[in-house]
Amino acid sequence: MPITVQWDDDDHKAVRWEFEGDWNWYEYQAAQAQSNALIDTVDHVVDVIAVMQNTRDLPREAFDNYRRLEKTSHPNRGRIVIVGSDTFIRSMLETFNQVYKRGSSGFILVRSIQEAHEVLARD
User: Fold this and answer.
1) The domain spanning residue 54 has which CATH number?
2) CA distance 78 to 59
3) pLDDT by 10s per residue, the chain, length 123
4) Beta strands 77-83 and 107-110, pairing class
């Protein structure tokens, strides 16, 4: 599966999504359902760490599809930290933050999983 979902830590404070190669919006939707099911098992906010070091592109119609799927995200989903995206994906995500005025609740872009953990630990 191009997107795997699992707990990132033993305290269940973060879910890790690992993107591998090409993926599509149906696979993203399945990953979101898995993530929501994990978050359902706890009673606190859960952040998402999306590891995108092994994928080089976003599927077509990224803005429309992400905006549509964002409406079905879990109410206890917290911040989304993107790890290791290439320049194109990074530009798309920064644009998404600006266009949809996500501000502090937008994507947090980092270079490593360690940096993701550091960012999440600060807040």
Assistant:
1) 3.30.750.24
2) 24
3) 699 999 999 999 999 999 999 888 889 889 999 999 999 999 999 999 999 888 877 766 766 666 665 677 788 999 989 998 667 777 777 777 677 665 445 788 899 999 999 999 987
4) parallel
